[in-house]
Write a structure and sequence with these properties.
- The longest helix has 36 residues.
- The protein is mostly helical and 155 residues long.
- It contains 6 helices and 2 strands, in the order H-H-H-E-E-H-H-H.
Length: 155
């Protein structure tokens, strides 16, 4: 099955903001420092502060000394933002999406439209990558001696 075929299959119903187990969290803990969140997510502390500053991150609680204290909900949101980053969605669109989420249920249609447009872009990129993979596989086979095809240089 090709990547494109896999993308076109029905997606399983998964909550969009559920964090993956790739960044385990300490048992029984729901407040994390910025350095812990950086370790969990692979994002730098600078990026996390920037996300908060531009409105991509909802308000993060603070300790009595002013240090950020991220919740499990914040980690779930950051996992979703990480997925949006992988799609190539522009930061401005991610911020728009975050604003729509904060605006509540009445913006669900707009959020859906934004995600659907992003999905179209992702499917197109996957098709381009699949084509590129085919070319690479052909070249690898050529170098492995399984095909005796002259190299095309475009000249």
């Amino acid at each position: 099955m090709t990547v494109v075929q896999m993308v076109n299959q029905e997606a399983s119903p998964v909550a969009p903001c559920v964090a993956e187990d790739t960044h385990p969290r300490p048992d029984g803990q729901d407040k994390y420092t910025i350095s812990e969140v950086a370790a969990f997510t692979g994002m730098s502390a600078h990026t996390l502060r920037w996300y908060e500053r531009i409105g991509l991150m909802p308000h993060v609680d603070r300790s009595n000394t002013g240090q950020r204290r991220f919740s499990n909900h914040d980690l779930d949101w950051l996992a979703f933002v990480g997925k949006l980053r992988l799609t190539g969605m522009p930061v401005a669109d991610m911020v728009t999406y975050a604003e729509l989420v904060r605006a509540g249920k009445r913006t669900e249609a707009q959020r859906k439209a934004l995600l659907e447009a992003t999905r179209v872009d992702v499917v197109q990129r996957i098709a381009e990558l699949q084509d590129t993979l085919t070319v690479l596989d052909h070249k690898i086979q050529t170098y492995a001696g399984t095909e005796l095809v002259p190299e095309r240089t475009g000249v």
